[in-house]
Design brief:
Mean pLDDT: 88
Radius of gyration: 13 Å
Number of strands: 3
Strand order of the largest sheet: 1-3-2
Oligomer: single chain
Order of helices and strands: HEHHEEH
Low-confidence stretches: none
Structural class: mainly alpha
């Protein structure tokens, strides 16, 4: 709905402020740091992020959160409903 859409836009804007060098990712350390300083609470565990394809560990020394996958993840903007619009 309209409220959820505005919430998702705000979430995206918040994550984009922490984006790492135009990669579409937020370093994991910055992701958790943003929760301390921002309006959103990023509390999902590393294991949760990994299970849902949100965690990018291709560079083990700098794991990162894939912004698009996080936004569309089950705990955020991917709304589930038994009703669909056609």
């Amino acid at each position: 709905g309209r409220w959820q859409d505005s919430e998702c836009i705000a979430l995206k804007q918040d994550l984009m402020q922490h984006e790492h060098r135009g990669t579409g990712r937020v370093l994991l350390k910055d992701f958790y740091g943003a929760a301390i300083n921002g309006s959103f609470q990023y509390t999902e565990s590393k294991e949760y992020l990994r299970q849902h394809g949100i965690l990018d560990e291709s560079n083990p020394s700098q794991p990162s959160v894939i912004i698009s996958n996080y936004i569309n993840g089950p705990s955020n903007c991917l709304a589930s409903s038994k009703f669909y619009s056609v």
